[in-house]
Amino acid sequence: MSFKSEIERRKTFAIVSHPDAGKTTLTEKLLLFGGAIHVAGAVKSNKIKKTATSDFMEIERQRGISVATSVMAFEYNGYKVNILDTPGHQDFQEDTFRTLTAVDSVIIVIDGAKGVEPQTEKLMEVCRMRKTPVIVFINKMDRPSKDTFSLIEEVEDQLKIATRPLSWPINSGPEFKGVYNIYDSSLQLFNPNVQEIDPGIKFENLNDPGLEKHIGNDAGTLREELELLEGVYPAFSEKDYLEGNTAPVFFGSALYNFGVQELLNTFLKIAPTPRPRPSNERIVDPYEQAFSGFVFKIHANIDPNHRSRIAFVKVCSGKFERNKPYTHTRLGKEFRISSPTAFMAAKKEIIDEAYPGDIVGVPDTGNFIIGDTLTDGEIIHYKGLPSFSPEMFRYIENADPMKSKQLAKGIDQLMDEGVAQLFTSQFNNRKIIGCVGQLQFEVIQYRLEHEYGAKCRFEPIQMYKACWIKSDDKQAIEEFKKRKSQRMATDKFGRDVFMADSPFMLDMARGEFENIDFHFTSEFDA
Ligand code: G4P
Question: Whose CA is nearest to atom 16 of ligand 1?
């Protein structure tokens, strides 16, 4: 197969949802179609259950599983499908955001009874920032769901994206009769006892009396609703979808494998193949011959006995080859990767080559951090996703003076992995850890102890947001840093960060220093 056709058959995407909407169930059904697994229940949930907040064995077990399920690749109808898994738990949201930097499109799963939930909104925000094409799958239609039009409206209003339904449900819950596939005028009947794939019954047009035969009086309502729909929505435009402006919407029930194949088939038809990617230097096209890729995720110490880390590299251009020397552009060093792995059918195996869109697992002994770029020699730096201001902050202190080296190393490595963000106070040099959720602090403490033999203690700190400051007026920055010296910190990359202790203090600072911009986000590798 030619290099070009290899790229054109690749679809790399993530399925995201608010916890419990059905991401794991849908992923599993897609893997069944792809023959990557053979029985339902084979994909272990990668989510850390709410009840597990202090059950660290459970967290460790889940970490192990999440390596195996981080990338699930399979072949289907000539396509090479790469599904990137994301942690469902909201405390690990940053991990999800970073994974979204490595996908070409996204499927958002929404629970039909609950509608759009907070985590879905945040995930969509990231997709919008990156103009990532999105398909919406409204799940659990076998359960009583919200009114269909209200659901669509909710998606548009809360996710701030235009939609285009491509299927339409006939009732929900016990009355759920199936979905009408708008794009090929076919009806699919729902039968909870049969989970086989139904090719659907095709209709020339909606006035076909055959409709009544299958769904009785609901046919009238379906006609009315579809007429209304067609009046309101313009025809589906692939271009609008690919530009990230319109999200096609499907309805179904992942649990009953209903509506999943239509989703997969349409997805494969319309979802983008690997796309050009901006770097600090230039836009890189996947079809360029020279290899390039970047690290979007690091999994460390999977086996605590062997300090092993895996850096997940997304191939962005050219062909990746085993044992070829590649340039690590941040370190300016050459690396040969002798045992790169791929994750076919949820199994890890050594590969000789990979193409744009693929994810390569690179064994690492501490050379990579998130955002690092590997190339054939050219010096380029892929743009990461900005890091967001954490929501919670704590001082981290050494609780065992004999182990300060271990602690420093542990903190350093965990931060490279992106477990949390580290800030160092410019005033007193104390280290501040910033997290999204409480569970992250617990994981850090546990891992420092179990993987690095170090003990830490967290101490409270009054903090509202970390603000990266920027201004063309160097004097203003110097003046600001002097005046706010007690609240200034440095992030992991040495950038100045103002640690605002309250919204009021931030407003005051903004008022006083109009020439300075205060950002709640920052590029990884700016
Ligand atoms: P997540 O990865 O998005 O967190 O969700 P997951 O697939 O684990 O699904 C959450 C629960 O919802 C599961 O119930 C799952 O069986 C159920 N579910 C998923 N899709 C459907 C659907 O289409 N219809 C119905 N009725 N249920 C669905 P569970 O195994 O009982 O787990 P839990 O409730 O104990 O968490």
Answer: 255
- Spacing, Cα 214 to ligand 1 middle (Å): 29
**In Å, what is the CA distance from 274 to each residue of 4, 104, 298, 374, 405?**
11, 6, 22, 17, 43
User: Within this chain, do residues 244 and 166 fall inside the same structural domain, yes or no?
Assistant: yes
For residue 138, report the distance from its CA to the centre of ligand 1, in Å. Answer: 13
Whether the predicted pLDDT of 60 surpasses 60: no
| 3-state DSSP assignment of residue 442 | helix
Q: How confident is the model at residue 302 (pLDDT cuts 50, 70, 90)?
A: low
Which value, to the nearest 10 degrees, does the dihedral of the CA atoms of residues 350, 353, 355, 360 take? 30
Is 23:7 a contact under the CB 8 Å cutoff? no
The confidence band for 413, taking pLDDT boundaries of 50, 70 and 90, is confident
Same structural domain for residues 344 and 244? no
Instruction: Inform me whether the pLDDT recorded for 52 exceeds 50.
Output: no
Ligand 1 neighbour 88 (Cβ under 6 A) = yes
Same-domain status, 399 and 339: no
Residue nearest to atom 29 of ligand 1 (CA): 20
Does 195 reside within a domain? no
Backbone angles phi, psi at 323, to 5 degrees: 70, 5
Ligand 1 lined by 18 (C-beta under 6 Å): no
In this model, does residue 91 exceed pLDDT 80? Answer: no
pLDDT > 90? residue 70: no
The CATH number linked to 368 is 3.40.50.300
Q: Are 354 and 332 in contact (CB under 8 A)?
A: no
pTM, two decimal places: 0.85
The angle at the Cα of 137, spanning 91 to 68, to the nearest 5 degrees, equals 50
Computed over every residue of the chain, the mean pLDDT equals 87
70 in a structural domain: yes
Q: Check residue 492 and give its pLDDT.
A: 86
What distance in Å separates the CA atoms of residue 329 and residue 76, rounded to the nearest whole number?
Answer: 35
Q: Identify each DSSP E strand in 41-78 by its residue range.
A: 71-76
